[in-house]
Amino acid sequence: MICADRIEKLRGEVGERLSDKRYAHTLGVERAAVQIGEYCLPDKITELAVAALLHDVAKEMTREDQLAAMERSGIAFTAEDYDSHALYHAFAACVLVREEFFDIATDDILSAVFKHTSGDAEMSVFDEIVFIADFVEDGREYAACKEIRNLLFSRLSAAESREECLKILHLMVVEVIDFTFKYLEERGKSVNSRMILAKKAVLA
After folding, report:
1. CA distance 30 to 56
2. Is the pTM for the entire model greater than 0.85?
3. Quick one: how far is CA 181 from the chain centroid?
4. Residues 131, 119: contact at Cβ < 8 Å?
5. How is residue 192 annotated by DSSP?
6. Are residues 9 and 18 in contact, defined by beta-carbon separation less than 8 angstroms?
7. Is 105 left (phi over 0), alpha (psi -120 to 50) or beta?
8. pLDDT digits over 144-179, tens only?
9. Rounded to whole angstroms, how far apart are CA atoms 185 and 64?
């Protein structure tokens, strides 16, 4: 069991690694993950908070250091993964969590940190919560983020069962993925197949 004191200490440890702007975002993701978790996964609130706090821990490392962490992971990354520079920080963060925060590095936390940007072929409810919390946290001012945030929380608050909450979560994760597809297409950027597989996994 991860105690409240350990989470408070973790906030300080993470804050030392990030700029003020990135740290504010991280705390926003923590708040969102906890709030969503109360509806969808109430027995995992503490772990969700930890995963949210650690999801961007490698975001401000140099690309070279991110790549070095990926090489230490033992994971066989594809050429497509190496072409997807925006995913490096998620892959590297998983390694840092395992190496430097091993006392709280549960399988759920490691998985959610790894998948929080692209998703993956297998997405648990825990993974989905951290994935969408990263998009809807209250510091995000983009129109799409505000729209999905408002829809998500209004629908969750009106839901009458946990089963209904989970259906809402799945649908809104797909909304985030579809928005990302459109965003990348408009900018002439390719979509990593991990995200395509993630959509299939969430809809399955």
Report:
1. 11
2. yes
3. 17
4. yes
5. P
6. no
7. beta
8. 999 999 999 999 999 999 999 999 999 999 999 999
9. 27
